[in-house]
Amino acid sequence: MKIIIRDINETAAACDALVLPFPEGEKSVPYKDINRALNNATDRIMSSKEFTGKLNEVCLIHTQGKIKPDRILLVGLGEREEITRDKLRRAGGRAASYLSGLNMKNVALSTRTILSLRLSPVDFVEGGLLADYRFTQYKKEEDRRGLEKLTILSDQDLHKQIRRLEAAVSAVHFARNLVNTPSNDMTPSALVKAARSLRKVSVKVIDRRQAERLGLGAYLSVAKGSAEPPKFIVITYKGKNVKPIALIGKAITFDSGGISLKPSEGMEKMKYDMAGGAAVLGVLKAVSEMKMPLHIIGILPAAENLPGGSAFKPGDVVKTLEGKTVEITSTDAEGRLTVADAIGYAKRLNPSAIIDIATLTGACSIALGNEAIAMMGNDGSLMEKMKKASEEASERVWHMPLFEEYLDYIKSDIADLKNSSGRTGSLVAAGYFLKEFAGDTPWLHLDIAGTAWLDKDRPYSPKGATGIGVRLLLNFLRLL
């Protein structure tokens, strides 16, 4: 979508539809001149309760040539005193989805009400851009719907903010595409191609034989049942000569559960088990395009987890890069094995901090539903920055404990650790397992199992892959 900024009156903006954001119950107060030009049409609609301004409510009015826009779209923001940045995003997403569904191409946005709220129209536009997404590459008939041009009617200089926004949203869509792609096409080797498509980064790929020499035993154990070769992908962006920040993304391109086979219902969604890796790739895409002054190393321990004659089994013991041994009590607790070896690898690069993002536990979904990311870590400063970043992005995090007693949950009788605690405390026990490998290095863990995939549309997240973590991590990186 092309975005331009013009300082002209709304009535002079030639477009398919002019979007007027409305606080609840305020009638035409913000737009008296437009209401008069339309012979009090907005007042009549609000008096009849066809439109009241409730959050995400929409109403389309044909202007019949009385003003330059062909149509007016009223979109509700909710009660004025309760309007937030995220409610602006939601309203923007609702407006974009509605207009796109009507095959509108050229849209203009009035900013006068948003500015009167001392908020930024960029948030409304962000919601619209995030909502304007479809995954159609496997459809025989191409879906050509989608907004093509947005004119922001404002006298403010928003160009720099819009450029940053476009880079961030493009990165979210990039991550969504990766996660939505079926696992027969989105293999570990395909993730390598995705990494190599990024600009201003260097990519190192550690294959099976090299990983064996390095001692990535936990990671390799997960890949043993699949014919797809594992790829341990290391991506470096160096926008500044400082200690790196390591971003680790779980990248299981399909998770059957292995020998500990998952139930068949819903297993087709397990292509989304590489959503953490997709988020890391999305972040690196945006960071490189924005030329952010950072040094970031992204690590994707990519593999498939399938059953087979050579697959790892419950009862096996594997050795990690750190030298610790792990008893396999469930092959469906595979993600923590791959991330643990990635943490061990990252520590050898002397990072200032390690952040891992992973669809790690089904227990995360049970505890927090689809509403929040479970956050754990060993560094209070990192977690406070992540909380602040989450508030700005409205990709919410919830701080979970890592009490020392959780170590008992993952103690093994025959090895240093076991990879699953069973049902009791499984969300935090998985986090504590990773903590054992982070050691003294500042580390933070984000479990996105409940938020990486949606089964129904939300205002600015179409159903399917959400691309969660990209905007959150970009905001976090700006705070460092």
Structure notes:
The protein is of the alpha/beta class. The protein has two domains: 2-153, Leucine Aminopeptidase, subunit E, domain 1 (3-Layer(aba) Sandwich); 167-478, Aminopeptidase, CATH 3.40.630.10. It contains 15 helices and 20 strands. It has helices spanning 32-37, 41-47, 85-101, 112-116, 121-131, 159-180, 188-196, 208-214, 217-223, 275-290, 335-347, 362-368, 380-393, 426-438, 470-478, and strands at 2-6, 17-23, 58-62, 71-78, 106-110, 149-153, 202-206, 231-238, 245-249, 251-255, 295-305, 317-319, 325-327, 353-358, 373-377, 397-399, 417-418, 443-447, 453-454, 464-465. The chain is elongated, with a radius of gyration of 24 Å.
Report the CATH architecture of the largest domain: 3-Layer(aba) Sandwich
Largest sheet: 9 strands, mixed
Looking at this structure, what is the CATH superfamily of the largest domain?
Answer: Zn peptidases
Question: What structural class is derived from the secondary structure elements?
Answer: alpha/beta
How many structural domains in the coordinates? 2
| Beta strands, count | 20
**CA-based gyration radius:** 24 Å
> Could you tell me the strand content as a percent range?
15-25%
Overall 3D shape: elongated
